[in-house]
Amino acid sequence: MHRTSVHRTLIAGTALGLALASAPAVAHATSTPGTNAPVRVTLTVRGPDGVLFKAKIRTRGHEVTTATGGTHRCDGTNGGANPSAVPTPTAALDDAARKRHVTWDGTWYASFDDFSVDTIKKVSGGGSAYWNISVNGTPTPVGGCQFKLNAGDKVAFAWTAF
């Protein structure tokens, strides 16, 4: 593996680990059982030079496949976050990729039971940035395959420099 790729992977993994490790314990305790019924959310992707994509997406939790990470479930049950499958931010991004041709790739981290989003629309987080996930203006306290979405939520993936 190229040294720059290794460096980027380590930084992305560290950023994801810090984000997940700093999640308050109540994030899991306050989750309520949900259904995996499809919900309609607004998905926005903001790159370093502005909005790369914005649309309403119908989504629910499902298996996600990326070139780098392979195929894994992304339905809110990841890491024990929710007792049953629910719609999630990363599943919404994946649905946008399939329905609206928004390319993305992510690395799977088994220790977090989640993906780290590495690239969206050919914009990479790289060694000095990462893709931050927020819902309704608040960064998610857990990974993108763990956070439960509700109808009408505003999901944002924002390129964020260190």
UniProtKB/TrEMBL annotation:
The keyword Signal applies. It comes from the Bacteria. The keyword Nucleotidyltransferase does not apply. Keywords: Signal. Pfam families: DUF4430. Residues 1-27 form the signal peptide. Residues 125-160 form the Transcobalamin-like C-terminal domain. This is DUF4430 domain-containing protein. It comes from Streptomyces pyxinicus.
